[in-house]
TrEMBL record, chain A:
The chain crosses the membrane at residues 31-50. This is Antenna pigment protein beta chain. Belongs to the antenna complex beta subunit family. It comes from the Bacteria. The keyword Magnesium applies. Signal peptide: none annotated.
Length: 51, 488
C-alpha cells in the first residue's frame, strides 16, 4: 500500500527494521534454548530420569 | 525463635515505609507533561527486579548456601562477588547504549531486553546449579567442576543482566525527563530499588522460613518469572521509535576519549575514590551480617533476612533526609555524603559491641544506623557525580558511578568473606564472633579514610563550578563543548 519501496508488507517496517526485530527474536530463541538445555542437564545430574 | 522481636521488626519496617512514602511525592514534579508520574513509576519497576536479585543473592542465598547447603564461606563470597566482574563495564554499557546504532532508532530498549534475558536465564539455572554444587541427591557422585561452573555461570548471568538493566534503565529514565529533573528521577529510581529490596526480603524471609530444596527451586525460578514480567511491564512502550536517529550519521567519539573527558573534570577522580572507599566500608559486612546473626547470635533464616530489611529501611530514611537536605535546605551533596560516612563509624563499632554483649537489639539498631549512613552517603555521592558531569555525558557518568560503586562493594564483599574464613582456619580464632570482628574493624577504618578524603572535597566544592553546566538553558542544542545534545 505504501509508496515507500523499502517498506515490507504487511508490517510497514522497512527491510532493515524488520531484520532488526527478527535479530532480537533469534537472539532470544538462542539464549532461552541454551538456558533450557543447561537447566535440563543440571536437573539430570541431581535427579536422573530414564535411568 | 524469638517471636516478639520478629513481629516488632516487621511492624517497624512497614510503619517506617508507610511514614516515608509521602516524603517522596516531591519526586512527582519530575514527571513533565509528556511523561506522567504513572509512566515513570512503571519504568521504575525494573529497579524492583534489580532489588530482588540483590536481596536474593547477597542476603538470602548467601545464608542458605553457608548454613543450609554448607558451602564454604570463601567460595560463597567469591561466587556472590562474580556478578561484580561486570561492574567496570557499566560505564561502557552506558556509553554503548548512548551511541547504539539501530534501524528502529532505539537506544535503550534492546539493551534492557538483553539484560532481562540474561537475568532470567541465570535465575532459571541457579537453583539446580546450587543443588549440584552442594552435592544434593545423585549430584554427590558428579564431578565437582559441574556444580562450580554452573553456579558461577548462573551468578555471572544474573549479575550481567542486572548491571545492563540497571545502567541502561537509569539512562532511559534520564532520557525521558528534562535535564534539571534528572537527579530527582534517579532519586526516585533508587527509592524504588530499596522498596524492591525491602519487599522481596520480607517475601523471601516468609517463603524460606521452612527451607526445603524444592522450596528453593520454587523461590528462585519464581523470581525469574517475576523478573521477566516486571521488566517487560517496565519497558513496554517507554522508548519512542526515532527515525531521524536511525538515519543520523554515526557519532565518532571513542569510549576512551569520552572517559578521559569525564575524568578530567576537577575533583572527579577524588570523588570516585571517596565513593570507592565509602562503599567498600559500608558494603563489606553485607554478606557477613546474616551468617553473623545466624552463627554468633543464633538467629533464624527469617530473622537474619529481616536484618537486610532493617538495613534497607535505614537507607530509605537516609535517602529521604538526604533529598530534603539537598533539595529544600540546599546543602552541598558532599556535606551530606560526609555526614553519612561520619554516622557509619559508630554504627560498626556498635556491631562489634553486639558481638561482645550478645544482644540482638543492639545489632538491629547498629544495622539501622549503618543503613542510614549508607543512604546519606549514596545519595550525596550520586548527586555530586551527576552535578559534576557534563550534560551530554550523564549516561556515562551514571555508568562510572555505578562501576566504581559496585566494584568497590564486590571487592569488599570478597575480602570480608576471605578474612572471615582465614580467621576461622586460625587455631584459636574459631569460636564465636572472633572471625567477624576484624572485618567490622576494617570497615570503620575505610570509612575514616573516606572521611579524610572527602573533607577537602567539601571545601573545594566540586559542584559549584559545575552548576553552571546543569543550569544551561534546556533548549540549548549544543552542550558546553559544542557536542550535539543526545536527548531525543
Amino acid at each position: 500500500m505504501s509508496n515507500d519501496p523499502d517498506k515490507v508488507w504487511p508490517t510497514g517496517l522497512t527491510l532493515r527494521e524488520a531484520e532488526e526485530v527478527h535479530s532480537y527474536l533469534i537472539d532470544g530463541t538462542r539464549v532461552f534454548g541454551a538456558i533450557a538445555l543447561l537447566a535440563h542437564i543440571l536437573v539430570a545430574v541431581t535427579t536422573p530420569w530414564l535411568g | 525463635m524469638d517471636v516478639s522481636t520478629m513481629f516488632d521488626y516487621k511492624r517497624f519496617a512497614l510503619g517506617r515505609l508507610a511514614a516515608i512514602a509521602p516524603q517522596y511525592l516531591p519526586f512527582a514534579d519530575a514527571a513533565s507533561d509528556e511523561v506522567p508520574l504513572s509512566r515513570l513509576l512503571r519504568l521504575s519497576l525494573f529497579q524492583i527486579t534489580v532489588g530482588m536479585a540483590l536481596v536474593l543473592m547477597v542476603g538470602t542465598l548467601n545464608r542458605v548456601m553457608i548454613v543450609e547447603l554448607q558451602v564454604p564461606a570463601t567460595l560463597v563470597a567469591l561466587m556472590l562477588a562474580l556478578p561484580l566482574v561486570f561492574a567496570p563495564f557499566r560505564a561502557l554499557i552506558g556509553f554503548k547504549s548512548d551511541t547504539f546504532r539501530s534501524a528502529l532508532g532505539l537506544r535503550r530498549l534492546p539493551w534492557i531486553f538483553k539484560g532481562t534475558m540474561y537475568q532470567f536465564g541465570g535465575f532459571a539455572i541457579m537453583p539446580f546449579a546450587l543443588l549440584v554444587l552442594s552435592g544434593y541427591g545423585e549430584a554427590v557422585d558428579a564431578p565437582r567442576w559441574i556444580g562450580l561452573t554452573a553456579a558461577a555461570l548462573s551468578f555471572l548471568l544474573v549479575g550481567a543482566g542486572m548491571h545492563i538493566v540497571q545502567t541502561v534503565g537509569l539512562a532511559l529514565a534520564t532520557d525521558l525527563v528534562p535535564p534539571e529533573d534528572q537527579p530527582k528521577v534517579v532519586g526516585l529510581m533508587y527509592v524504588m530499588l530499596l522498596v524492591g529490596m525491602i519487599l522481596s526480603a520480607l517475601i523471601y524471609g516468609a517463603l524460606l522460613s521452612t527451607y526445603t530444596p524444592g522450596r528453593l527451586i520454587q523461590v528462585i525460578q519464581g523470581t525469574a518469572v517475576v523478573t521477566i514480567f516486571l521488566n517487560g511491564l517496565a519497558m513496554w512502550k517507554q522508548e519512542a521509535r526515532n527515525r531521524s536517529r536511525a538515519l543520523a550519521p554515526r557519532s565518532e567519539i571513542a569510549f576512551s576519549t569520552a572517559l578521559r573527558r569525564l575524568s578530567a573534570r576537577p575533583g572527579m577522580l577524588r570523588l570516585l575514590a571517596v565513593i570507592a572507599l565509602g562503599t567498600a566500608g559500608f558494603g563489606m559486612a553485607d554478606v557477613l551480617l546474616e551468617p553473623f546473626g545466624g552463627q554468633v547470635l543464633q538467629m533464624t533464616v527469617a530473622q537474619t533476612t529481616r536484618l537486610t530489611v532493617v538495613l534497607a529501611c535505614g537507607s530509605l530514611v537516609g535517602f529521604a533526609l538526604a533529598s530534603r537536605w539537598l533539595g529544600r535546605d540546599g546543602l552541598q551533596p558532599m556535606t551530606v555524603a560526609t555526614l553519612g560516612a561520619f554516622v557509619g563509624v559508630p554504627a560498626f563499632l556498635m556491631v562489634m559491641a553486639s558481638a561482645v554483649l550478645l544482644t540482638v537489639p543492639l545489632l538491629i539498631a547498629a544495622t539501622l544506623i549503618a543503613g542510614f549512613g549508607a543512604g546519606l552517603f549514596g545519595h550525596g555521592t550520586l548527586t555530586a557525580t551527576m552535578r559534576a558531569a557534563p550534560r551530554d555525558q550523564i549516561g556515562l557518568a551514571l555508568g562510572a558511578w555505578g562501576a566504581v560503586q559496585t566494584t568497590a562493594a564486590g571487592a569488599a564483599i570478597a575480602l570480608g568473606g576471605v578474612i572471615r574464613d582465614v580467621m576461622l582456619l586460625a587455631p584459636d580464632g574459631a569460636q564465636g564472633a572472633a572471625p567477624y570482628l576484624p572485618v567490622f574493624g576494617l570497615e570503620v577504618g575505610l570509612l575514616l579514610l573516606a572521611l579524610i578524603l572527602a573533607l577537602p572535597l567539601r571545601r573545594q566544592d566540586i559542584d559549584t563550578g559545575l552548576r553552571t553546566t546543569t543550569s544551561l538553558p534546556t533548549g540549548s542544542p549544543a552542550g558546553p563543548d559544542g557536542l550535539a545534545d543526545t536527548r531525543p
